[in-house]
Specification:
By secondary structure, the protein is an alpha+beta fold. The chain contains 6 helices and 11 strands. The strands form 3 sheets. The protein has a 5-stranded antiparallel β-sheet, covered by helices on one side. Strands 1-2-3 form a 3-stranded antiparallel β-sheet, with helices on one face.
Length: about 200
């Protein structure tokens, strides 16, 4: 009888510890409002910012992409480039993953990313994450020595590249200098002046 009573008391103690742990976890360690789904406004029909509870706890934010395969979730900091592909948007991540977002536009992508203060730059066919700019390369395409014709290609960290339109070169270079806090008078800053004459 005493042995049975001892087993019962130990079982009751274990049960009480489990209940107390669950109660403390839910009521003191993790605020209730973090565990609840966060309200998010729909940004277009193809891209939606997300505030998933586990992501908030880790300090990460995601966007939901409506793709040809269903809903895909990517971390906001992972995107490198968004580009027009027919009626859809093709988003590439730093890991090299590609997502074709349906029923969306570059404007909707831009608006979704601006909610997370992403360092972005927009062109007619692209939205670029400035954090992943690797280099800007200038090539001389001149047929005549008297008149110079340069093309400027931007290479991203994931090996993607695109050509800068002539009318956007200076704005793009200024945005890169501002993002990386490059002083105009510094040696690096003067190199940029050669890129955007």
């Amino acid at each position: 009888m005493i042995a049975m009573k001892k087993v019962f008391n130990q079982t009751l103690l274990i049960f009480a510890i489990i209940v107390a742990t669950i109660y403390i976890d839910r009521n003191f360690l993790i605020p209730h409002d973090i565990l609840k789904p966060q309200p998010v406004a729909m940004v277009g029909s193809g891209i939606q910012p997300m505030a998933k509870s586990s992501s908030i706890l880790k300090g990460k934010h995601k966007i939901m992409l409506k793709t040809t395969k269903g809903a895909e979730f990517i971390e906001v900091n992972d995107w490198v480039l968004g580009e027009i592909k027919g009626d859809n948007i093709l988003i590439t991540t730093i890991q090299g993953r590609k997502f074709e977002v349906i029923q969306s536009s570059l404007q909707e992508l831009r608006e979704a990313l601006e909610k997370f203060d992403q360092p972005l730059f927009s062109l007619k066919s692209y939205v670029i994450n400035l954090e992943y700019v690797q280099r800007i390369e200038r090539k001389d395409r001149s047929l005549n020595q008297n008149k110079r014709n340069y093309t400027y290609t931007v290479f991203m960290d994931n090996e993607q590249k695109f050509t800068l339109p002539k009318d956007k070169r200076k704005k793009f270079v200024d945005a890169v200098k501002a993002h990386f806090e490059i002083e105009p008078e510094s040696e690096v800053g003067t190199l940029f002046d050669e890129v955007a004459p």
